Amino acid sequence: MPRIINLRKAMCVLAGTALTVGVAGCGGGSKGDTEDRNWVHAIVTPKGDAGFILMAQARKYYEEQGVKVKIKSFTGNIPLNQALQSGDVDSIETSPDPVFDASLRGGDVKIIGSTLPGLTYSVIAQKKVRSFEDLKGKKIGVSLPGSLPDVAVRAMLASKKLDSKSVQVINVGNDAQRFQAISAGRVDAAAVSPEFVPRIKDSKTLHELGSAEELIPDYPRFVIAANGKSLEEKPDTAARFLAAEMQGISYAAAHKKEVLELSAKTLKLEPTDPSLDYFYDRIIDGKAESTKCEIPRDKLEWLQEFRMSNGLQKKKVDLDELLDDSFQKEGLKRVGDDLGAAGS
Q: pLDDT tens digit string along 95-118?
């Protein structure tokens, strides 16, 4: 008789164990409750749009979403993507071009969202350069080959039916260094962030030759790319991270004063600095922000076609494989109606 009782107890234990396993394997809920909530996100060294990029951190939306986010900054998109590929960071805010290149090399990377998909960029030129046609044979300053300034300039030239080989496209460093180069006359034109445009308002030698919004409106500026391993191991954390980003961008789009103050604090400028006000208006007027962090697929398709037709990319990236909006959708579920409240 005792053996029968023990057998029944054993069967009950086994049944309970099977039930536990079954629950753990349903819907990922159990994994989401136990996964690592730490997330390392990297950005390009903050510029005049720092108030948008850093608002989720400043407003403590990460903590509200239950994640611990550490933000690192790099001097450009190329080293940013190198950090992602090495596994030093979980996600990056980057121009799409290096992500395409990494994907074609077999990199384990996914594009999961976007905060500022609209490109706000300008080409500043010497006043003797009155049109893009006048740039033939002249020097135009960009950054590393394959970087956003480099490819964006080539796209602007193409919009004017000019071959980039007709000008001298050279690497002269980051935005500040490119502005210094054009100011000193070392180059005839330079691609720069919008915050530098107000600085030439009263210049007798420089002027804005053209803007990305006008010439290449379909060019995507930023995407959020994530390490495939991080997404596999911490899917719920990734969704929570994106939810906080949505809250941050939504708040920034509705609170200009706070954005200018945060940008000024980050860049050690006065909140009244005209470059910050100008940059904010360029973003809002151009509808360059995405409060729901949707993946700008149409823009990415345009960019890929441009890269292919201009010899910057030899093989097409499978966008169905590269893009994954499941984390953005889960993040949106987390904020729901509260997303509007974040902007109030």
A: 999 999 999 999 999 999 999 999
Please state, as a whole number, how many other Cβ atoms lie within 10 Å of the Cβ of residue 279: 27
Q: How far apart are CA 212 and CA 217, in angstroms?
A: 6
Backbone φ, ψ for residue 247 (5° rounding):
-65, -40
Size (the chain), residues = 344
Place of tokens 């360029």: 282
Calculate the alpha carbon distances from 20 to 24, 30, 172 in Å: 6, 10, 60
223 near 300, Cβ under 8 Å?
Answer: yes
CA distances from 274 to 57, 269, 277 (A): 24, 10, 5
Residue 70, pLDDT > 60, answer yes
Predicted local confidence at residue 150, as pLDDT: 93
Pairing of strands 168-171, 91-94: unpaired
Inter-residue contact 77 to 225 (CB < 8 Å): no
**Tens-digit pLDDT profile for residues 33-48:** 789 999 999 999 989 9
